[in-house]
Amino acid sequence: MPIRRRLRQRTGKNTIKRLTEFNTGDTVKIIYEEVKDRDFLARLEDLGLIPEEEIKIVEKIRKGPVIIKVKKKDIVISHSVLEGIYAIKIE
Prior knowledge:
Elements: E1 3-6, E2 17-18, E3 27-35, H1 38-46, E4 54-60, E5 66-70, E6 73-77, H2 79-82, E7 85-89
Antiparallel strand pairs: 1-3, 2-7, 3-4, 3-7, 4-5, 5-6
C-alpha cells in the first residue's frame, strides 16, 4: 500500500495534478506525495520535496529527467519519481 503525505488545504479552482503534467516555467506547490516506502519518502524530504513547498519546473525532457528548482537549488530528478508527487499551479 502506498504511503501518502498530504497537505490539508483547499485548492479552490486549481486542479491537483502530477508534477509531470506541468510545463516548463510553471511554479507549483506540492500538495501530497504517494510513494511505496518510508525510505523513499525520507529521500524526497532530504531533497526538499515536501507538502507546501513551492518549486519551479526549470526544464522537462519528455519521459526523461526533469530539472526543478527547490529552495534556490536546481535538482535533476527522474520523470518516474515525479509521477508520485501531486501539486497545484501557483498563479
